[in-house]
Each structure stands twice: as structure tokens, then as C-alpha cells.
Amino acid sequence: MTGLSPSAISQIEIGKSIPNILTMKAITEALGISVISFLLENVDTKISLVKPGERLRLVRNSTSTGDLGDLIEEFLTQGRNFQMEPAIITVPPKADSGRAITHPGEEFIFILKGELRYILEGVNDYDLKEGDCLYYPCTIPHRWHNPSEQIEINF
């Protein structure tokens, strides 16, 4: 069905040969599966559907002084097999993240509502508005501040 010899298929099965993209396409079509499912060991652990009422929520003190309300973080995926941890973060007015931190990985910020000042120390201060995106390596010391007097922001 693939047009490959039994020997070629055997070499792929035992890991002695790596198929090119056209060979992978022929094999997956013969098996009735997608190319992506051929590449993933366990597809089910790579997929997460989380509906709004099912989101895990973390409520924590939102400022270094602790007197401006709670920061709410809603996680948009569930499971441990993901390289990203997307979340919607709701920040009360005048709240801040405290001191700058660093950690491994990368962050992607998308402002859903409101404005946020994002500080990448030694690089730049960014005044982000609704619809703005910021992506950066977390090895840069970073922190944020909600400058608004009245608006909770979501990012």
C-alpha cells in the first residue's frame, strides 16, 4: 500500500532507517492516520481542552504590599506534558509583581483588556495596551505593574 519494500518498512520499524517526509506521508496514508500522530508518541497526552468553567484557578496576593486585592491566574491547559503554561491573569489596579525575577524558559504576554507596564531590566520598559503582544526569554530579569487607578487588567 505504501510502495515501500518489506525490507524498507522493517528498517524503519527497528529504527535503523529514518523515513523522509514523503515516505512518512505514504505510511500514514496507508495506516489512515495523520503525519503528526506518527510523530507523537502518545497524542492524548499532548492535547488539552479546557472549558471556561473547568479552568484551574490560583488566587494569590497581587502586590508586594499585599493591600490591593487578589491576582487571579486561570490556567488554560491541564496536564504536565506541555512546554508552555498559558494562563489568563487578572490584575487589580495599581498591583505589581514585586521584584524582578529570572527563570528558565520564555514568556508570551498578550493584553486582553487594560494596560500593563512590563519591565525587562537592562533592556526596555514596555507600556502594553489592549491587543499588544510581548515575547521574551525569561533569563532577562522581568517584572510588571498595572498603572491604572480603576481598571483590572487581563493578560
Automatic annotation (TrEMBL):
Keywords: DNA-binding. GO terms for cellular component: cytosol. Pfam families: Cupin_2, HTH_3. Residues 1-38 form the HTH cro/C1-type domain. Gene3D superfamilies: Jelly Rolls (2.60.120.10), lambda repressor-like DNA-binding domains (1.10.260.40). The keyword DNA-binding applies. GO terms for molecular function: DNA binding; DNA-binding transcription factor activity. InterPro entries: Cro/C1-type_HTH, Cupin_2, Lambda_DNA-bd_dom_sf, RmlC-like_jellyroll, RmlC_Cupin_sf, TransReg_Diox_bact_type. PANTHER family: HTH-TYPE TRANSCRIPTIONAL REGULATOR, METHYLPHOSPHONATE SYNTHASE. This is HTH-type transcriptional regulator PuuR. The gene is puuR_1.
